[in-house]
Write a structure and sequence with these properties.
Layout (H helix, E strand, L loop, with lengths): L1 H13 L16 H7 L2 E11 L2 E11 L5 E5 L16 E9 L2 E3 L5 E2 L1 H9 L4 H25 L12
Parallel strand pairs: 3-5
Antiparallel strand pairs: 1-2, 1-4, 2-3, 4-5, 4-6
Length: 161
């Protein structure tokens, strides 16, 4: 009587910890930091996989030299919910070089829009500075010209000089 009960309790403890649909245990590192640490990043549609080689059709290269079709070596790739990837899912991939091969894992997959946002957040800084300086120069030129002429704009409701 006790032996079947002990077996049933042991199974109840062991079954939830099996890898069926198990979410990957990934470190909690912000996506911009993970992107900085990897040499290759792209948005790609999974075409197929043969064993541990995953074939992606690159839709948008984000970092590193990436062709239009990329083969990435990895064990079983699952999404954040533990569901295995099946074609034609589109994912953001962060990959490392291992010799001539690219390697990744489930923790290096990201939601495509979040990866694009993280990759492009630093762009445009120089343009913003140049536009700001041009606007500042225009305002300073206008104010110095007005000061030299001694004219004030005739605004309605403004105090008279």
């Amino acid at each position: 009587m006790k032996r079947p009960l002990l077996t049933l309790c042991a199974l109840a403890l062991v079954l939830p910890s099996l890898a069926f649909g198990k979410e990957p245990a990934c470190p909690n590192i912000p996506l911009p930091d993970r992107l900085d640490a990897t040499p290759v990043a792209f948005i790609g549609a999974l075409v197929s996989h043969d064993g541990d080689i995953w074939h992606f059709d690159v839709q948008r290269p984000l970092k590193g030299a990436v062709g239009t079709v990329v083969d990435v070596r990895a064990a079983e790739l699952v999404d954040a919910n533990g569901t295995p990837l099946v074609p034609p899912v589109v994912v953001g991939v962060l990959a490392l070089h291992d010799g001539a091969d690219l390697v990744t894992d489930s923790c290096s997959l990201a939601e495509p829009n979040a990866l694009v946002t993280a990759a492009e957040q630093d762009k445009g800084g120089l343009i913003k500075i140049v536009v700001g300086l041009v606007l500042l120069a225009g305002v300073l030129q206008w104010s110095s010209r007005r000061r030299r002429r001694g004219t004030r704009p005739d605004l309605p409701g403004a105090p008279s000089a």
